[in-house]
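In the previous lecture we treated proteins in isolation. Real proteins rarely work alone, and many bind small molecules. This record shows how such a complex is specified: first the sequence, then the SMILES for thiamine diphosphate.
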Amino acid sequence: MARLTKETLLDWYRQMVLIRQFETRCDELYQNKTITGVYMHLYSGHEATGVGALAALGPEDHVITAYRDHGHALIRGVHPNPIMAEMMGKKTGVSGGKGGSMHIASRQHNMWGGYAIVGGHLPLAAGIAFASQYNDRPEVTISFIGDGASNNGYFHEALNMSGVWKLPVVWIIENNFVAMGTRIEDSTAQTELHNRAIGYGIRDGGRIDGQDVFAVYDSVSEAVKYAREGNGPVLIESITYRYKGHGVSDKTYDKRFADELAEWRDNKDPIELLRRQLQKKFKNIDPELAKIDAACQAAVDEATEYAINSPDPTYEDLISNVYVEE
Ligand SMILES: Cc1ncc(C[n+]2csc(CCOP(=O)(O)OP(=O)(O)O)c2C)c(N)n1
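The predicted 3D structure, ligand included, written as tokens:
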């Protein structure tokens, strides 16, 4: 914390608050049917892992993730307006309204999505990292992975090849202990997921406190440096917790996990932890934090208006980029 400027610290706070407020609004919009569809997976609770990890990258680096993707896109600097428009399936959305919540991508930000098939993006991450290596570009790819996804065959294939080819990729497992409704101990014999690095001959970046943005930043920065210097991949396990059910259709999560949820919310909330650290470090920081909170709320209001007032895709839009004519 001592090495970081006040400006950086406040920007990390802003990013975390923006994600929380954006997703709280998405949840409301889903409940009143402004956002539709069967799926929407919120990132709330994980903010420090995303913000700390992506602060270790530059704009030339690459990010890929699964369907809990709105937070990563916001951190990468994708504007909230086209993200919200995508949530509502509008023409102005990042994917022209054809992807929805699980497909938030932006080529301009090297934010490669947003994938619905569990683990399916891991070979893509290896491919992106391979392209950087093959073209002699000093870029690093961060791939976020769910704990459940680490039991999928794609995980094995991608981590193995990344080890064989010493690809510049940092694999970050966001371990929130649950895959849909299945607890990790019911699906996984080796519950210390970072230990799997040994099996692939890659660097074990350890298990980190994913609620502490500084711990995440330090570990991921070290891993990014190692990968960028051509030493190969690193596997990190970040311990975190999701505040909502697997997706919006999981209505009983709050009740099933009530005690554990309360414990994390009350004692380990990543935004509260950062707020307290900022209050300790800087005198009278509260008005500045309140200003940031209000600015994030205004950005979310603007994104909501923008998306609601955006047109739906036309029929021509919907059938474009589906088939390529020779
Ligand atoms: C190949 C495949 N199998 C099953 C599913 C259904 N499914 C969606 S999410 C999920 C659980 C994934 O959990 P985890 O990787 O821990 O990620 P989290 O949701 O906790 O972020 C499952 C089984 C799917 N989308 N793709």
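Summary for your notes: The chain has a mean pLDDT of 96. Residues 68, 116-118, 146-149, 176, 178-180, 246 surround thiamine diphosphate (CB under 6 Å).
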